[in-house]
Amino acid sequence: MKNLFSIEGKTALVTGGSRGIGEMIAAGFLASGAKVYISSRKAEVCDATAEKLSGEYGGECISIPANLANLDGIEALVSDLREKEKQLDILVNNAGVTWGAPLEEFPESGWDKVMDTNVKGVFFLTQKLLPLLRKSATHDDPARVINVGSIDGIVTPRFENFSYGPSKAAVHHLTRVLAAHLVKQHIIVNAIAPGPFPTWMLSAGVGFGGQTEGVDWDAVGNSNPRGRVGTMEDIAGLAIFLSSRAGAYTVGETITCDGGAVASATPGA
Q: From CA 175, how far away is CA 190, in angstroms rounded?
């Protein structure tokens, strides 16, 4: 039982791992003894985050920059990873984008960019990485896929980001579909639906201009039932549970990590 939550020695890929929730999950994995690859579109930022996380938490954090909104970027990432690893234990599909505009002005480009990254990217990256996941997967120790959705895919978003909530609802349903297809291959798929965390995306939405340091996150957290925004321990703890022996019988679920926001939502309000 004392190793119930261990992921020591596992190899993980966290997309969108250069900042925000992806960086938090990567940090938690490193601190727990996993080898972690992170990916994001901006090479310099991705490289810098990998170096920073390796220094702060020890272990190996390796940068593989890639644009996961298109198949060329996905295949480049998979090719690079296959040169470095013979198997993959944990895939965290966290890369995501949003787009804000009034309903009457919302552009096709904003719709397509969000759907391509948030939904198509999750599906095709998982598809292309199945050979590496299958090599890791056993009956006693399945490979894991964790898709990062959002509470905006469960309740109505408060911001004018009309493609974001539907894209995350699609991620939640895609999680169930993939879970049903892959569970007998000893690959377990689940999703996390985060609520408010101190990320660039939420910062931009609440008027902090994308800044995550030196801003009043307490003011944002005061409206949450738990009275705060999420922390690295909150999101990484859930990802570690889903990646460990403790989560080996949890399949196809979308688990909120939101301080009670969905549970406390008032219908019709």
A: 6
